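Morning. Coffee machine broken again, so started the prediction first thing and wrote up yesterday's gels while waiting. Chain of 521 residues, entered below exactly as on the submission form.
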Amino acid sequence: MKRTALPIILAALLMFTRGLTVIQALPLWEGFDEWLHYSYVTYITRTLSIPSFNQYSVPREVVDSLMIAPGDSVSGGHLTFKAYWELSDEERAAARTALFGLMNDDRSQFVRASWQAQHPPLYYFVLSPVRKLLSEKSLIQSLFILRLATLLIVCLGLIPSYFLFRRFFDSRTSAIGLMFIALYPATFIRFGPLCNDALAFPLLTAFVLWLLAYPRKESSALLSLGGGLLFGLGIITKLYVLTALPAILFVYVLKAAQKDGLLKSALFFILFMAGAFILAGPWLILNIERYGTWNATIQAVVSKDMSLGQKFSAALSVDWKSFWISNVIGLLWAGNWSFVTFPSYIYKYFSAALAVLSLAGIFAFWKTRRHPDFTEKSILALVCAGFLMGLMQFQVNLQACGVTDPAPGWYWTVLLPVHFCLLGLVLSYYFGAKTRHVLLGLTFCSGFLSAWGTIGYLFPYYGGLLDKSVLSNHFFHAFSLSESVARLQAMNFVPIPLAWTLAAELCLWAALAGTHLWTPE
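Came back before lunch.
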């Protein structure tokens, strides 16, 4: 085995093991809108059609489960996690029996509408065959298996991520990039539960690779059509993939200026968009027929008839400070649907670090504007800038609809590979040959936060040992780890002892540290 292959394999194993820990420890429906994502998969499986957000698409057994499953976030008359563990042994045994006894019922009525029906359908169609095999399983078993399928999709995203890193860094640094994704705090806050972002992650990363490759390749109809088809797959997975349009326009204008000429480049761009429309067009047309607009998000549908003046007024009314805070929290650690967050000073330090890195990055990019790789750096920056503009536009739509809650920042998780590339490029300007060691240190620091958030915050919270109000005020809390693990295993469907996956994570951490720190270059 080549020496460079070992850290890649270990990082991939760490990604899977870390995800397995999270999906086993996560209680029923504790992921963001997870019960609605599950219902979407079930609706497609049972009806072979796409739901709309104003029709009933949530099956009765899922709605019934909200009244039984302990938790703090979903509506219903259920117990909090702490109250659940304060029940007598007999009451808790009865509650657990009721929870584990909830079965999928392919003949049940759909009794509630789902705002998640606004999402494109590809992720849900991908999981539909798996859900079909689970018709006789309990809800809690089915959810674990669908989470596991989602985890495997996320792990596939490591493949394009590695090739993306290799465009800028050596193999050892690229392996650290895979570790960075696996250990970053927000990764499995977003990708652990059922979530269509899990499929958007490998698709968008692969598309960024295409964007980087296009300026250097000989233009052809097949290349543009293939890029358009990949872009179309992304659109019917998650609409925020459309925020890559500024970067797409940039690469075609660049080709026009380099050697293709305006007419030839325009024709290839039209072919690219045709490829995207082949896949995304039916979904966009369906939205126009249903809602009167191609954008099926509820906020866009409600505000579709507003004038530009009204939208501008809404933009002026947005609390952009809250928008920034929400993005910082979601980008680092949002604590699942119960929002079990770190103390506020952790986010303040992170926010300051982001501001410093951004300023340092702008300076470094300007100073290296004549370097051969400046075009590729610009494409990465445009992908992030487009994504930010998309989130801001989403926030304006929310405000126009009378919703003052800030747009969540956890959507940024899908761009973690791009963020690592930009981070590495900025640091390489200042640290040169030592960049790999700086990146390794930052990766393990973020991994510590991730592990401490899971073990030190989520475990005692879900185990009913500590309240959120206590957890969010201090970084360290005394509690029984063995008791919290035992409680999670008793409450969740955990086919593998949770202690085993935790031990496997620790071993992989140690192996990766040894691989990077004590083996020769």
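Residues 104 and 136 are 6 Å apart (CA to CA). Going to sketch it on the whiteboard this afternoon.
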